[in-house]
Design brief:
Helix content of chain B: 25-40%
CATH architecture of chain A: Orthogonal Bundle
Helix content of chain A: over 70%
Number of helices of chain B: 7
Distance between the termini of chain B: 26 Å
Radius of gyration of chain A: 22 Å
Oligomer: heterodimer
CATH superfamily of chain A: MetI-like
Number of strands of chain A: 0
Structural class of chain B: alpha/beta
Order of helices and strands of chain A: HHHHHHHHHHHH
Radius of gyration of chain B: 18 Å
Shape of chain A: globular
Largest sheet of chain B: 6 strands, mixed
Largest sheet of chain A: none
Shape of chain B: globular
Distance between the termini of chain A: 34 Å
Strand content of chain A: under 5%
Number of strands of chain B: 10
């Protein structure tokens, strides 16, 4: 028991459990189930909507749109940063445009997206691209710039130039920065997609998780609203603590290349 | 000189722009290196010896003069002149030792994976890193990293090896050991080596001939024949050390 307590994961699990117990007691004693359902009824609603496929379907829809946006954003970031490391005007362009657009929240672009692409997936992808493009470009660019000159010269010594040098040397050498750009991009994109779906989800035949939460609030299924929020938290935790940790173990940690962030 | 000439450097001046104007690192340098020779560029720090090596490697075109390898002008970096750098980060950190030695064989010599692996393993064995073929660079000591870099360069079978103070960041004991190993490798391969150093002792142990550069800007002070190459602390090597010392002090 004592040795279990020494493990941070065990202590964190205990914290979560305590919070759940508090929630359960507090809501049983003092809250209306319409405003704040009990922990047990939320867990039951969560289990129900996972079992009937509703929540997994909505989550898959959100993730699919998010991934599409992230892949397009990453490709654009790669083009932007390649131009930025090869030409001076490209570097100035990247610096100017990222400092302009980085502070602009993706949600603020939704009215424009509606105007340009209408209600639907295209608008969602547009705001996701906006939310990931600038942080991923900034990090990738920083990664390229910090590649040691010795490594570049080693590549040139092997006769590599242009795209072969970028793919063979610069990209892997900058990978720690690129990975941290992807992590920041994911964090922005996941928050953005849930918010954006509350506006756009209405149109498609099937909405995402954001739409699931919004719709259930409309129908006063407060336990399902909470189940939706729980799903958003769970997926966020899984991606950040399992997927990215795994990716880091397979790459930058194995190579001894992890950066400060 | 008995050996046919391999590298010819003629009237080379190298200058590059700095914040305080054009800086001339090397001026009117002329020398040639014979096939199979171990040739040392020796001088105090700031005499432009590393710049000269970078120019021969093709990283830095000379402002004036010509560099020719086998009577062909050097215009850009290429796998016929492989550089072993002083910096430990010359190994690709995302590849194992085996991966590091195989990679240039794949991209520069277009070998198929099986042939590249065979060739890589041969040279990894030559530098004594067999047991570390699957280790990543960050798991190796400084000396092992430089051994891996030497194996990678030798595997490419270049016309000449350009070594830019490869042992300068190692501790004294490891450095001595690496010098002995380099001599052994040279005995086995007879590779032409251009070796840059600021250590008189290292120059005398390794070099068949020693070019002494004077500082600011680097000019040829003298080229000395070294009959004591491969010897350490013998009468002959101490004599030549004193001679080099004198030339440096002129």
């Amino acid at each position: 028991m004592k040795s279990l307590w020494r493990r941070p994961a065990a202590r964190k699990a205990a914290i979560v459990l305590t919070l759940f117990v508090f929630w359960e007691l507090l809501t049983r004693w003092a809250a209306s189930p319409l405003l704040f359902p009990t922990a047990s009824s939320v867990l039951a609603a969560f289990a129900r909507s996972v079992a009937n496929g509703e929540v997994p379907g909505y989550a898959a829809q959100s993730l699919q749109v998010l991934l599409t946006g992230m892949v397009i954003g990453a490709a654009l970031a790669l083009v932007l940063t390649t131009v930025a490391v090869t030409t001076r005007i490209g570097a100035e362009f990247l610096e100017t445009i990222t400092s302009m657009f980085n502070p602009l929240p993706a949600i603020a672009l939704m009215p424009l997206a509606l105007l340009w692409f209408g209600l639907g997936v295209k608008s969602l992808i547009f705001v996701i691209i906006h939310s990931v493009l600038w942080p991923m470009s900034l990090n990738t660019y920083q990664g390229f710039v910090t590649v040691p000159q010795t490594l570049r010269r080693v590549g040139q010594n092997f006769g590599l130039t242009g795209w072969r040098l970028v793919l063979g040397i610069l990209l892997p050498a900058a990978f720690p920065y690129i990975l941290s750009g992807i992590k920041i991009g994911w964090a922005f994109a996941w928050r953005t997609i849930i918010a954006a779906e509350m506006v756009f989800g209405v149109a498609g035949s099937q909405g995402g998780l954001g739409w699931f939460i919004y719709q259930n609030r409309f129908e006063m299924n407060t336990d399902l609203v909470f189940a939706g929020l729980l799903t958003v938290i769970l997926i966020g935790l899984l991606v950040e603590n399992l997927f990215f940790k795994w990716l880091e173990r397979k790459t930058v940690l194995r190579w001894g290349m992890s950066t400060a962030h | 000189m008995s050996e046919p000439e391999l590298l010819s450097v003629r009237d080379v001046t190298i200058s590059y722009p700095t914040e305080s104007g054009l800086f001339t690192a090397v001026e009117n340098v002329t020398f040639s290196v014979g096939r199979g020779e171990k040739f040392i560029l020796l001088g105090p720090s700031g005499c432009g010896k590393s710049t000269l090596l970078k120019s021969i490697a093709g990283f830095m075109p000379p402002a004036r003069g010509t560099v020719e390898l086998d009577r062909h002008a050097v215009t850009r970096p290429g796998p016929d002149r492989v550089v072993v750098f002083q910096e430990f980060d010359q190994l690709l950190p995302w590849k194992t030792v085996l991966g590091n030695v195989m990679y240039p064989l794949r991209v520069a010599k277009r070998m198929d994976p099986a042939a590249a692996r065979r060739e890589a393993n041969r040279f990894i064995g030559m530098v004594g890193l067999d047991r570390f073929a699957d280790s990543y660079p960050h798991q190796l000591s400084g000396g092992m990293k430089q051994r891996a870099a030497i194996a990678r360069s030798l595997a490419l079978d270049p016309a000449m090896l350009l070594m830019d103070e490869p042992f300068a960041s190692l501790d004294a004991l490891t450095r001595r050991k690496m010098q002995e190993e380099l001599l052994g490798i040279w005995e086995a391969t007879r590779k032409t080596i251009l070796f840059v150093t600021h250590s008189i002792q290292e120059a005398v142990v390794l070099g068949d001939r020693i070019l002494v550069l004077s500082p600011g800007p680097g000019r040829v002070r003298r080229v000395l024949d070294n009959p004591a190459a491969g010897q350490r602390d013998t009468e002959a090597s101490l004599t030549i050390q004193r001679a080099v010392q004198e030339v440096l002090g002129e």
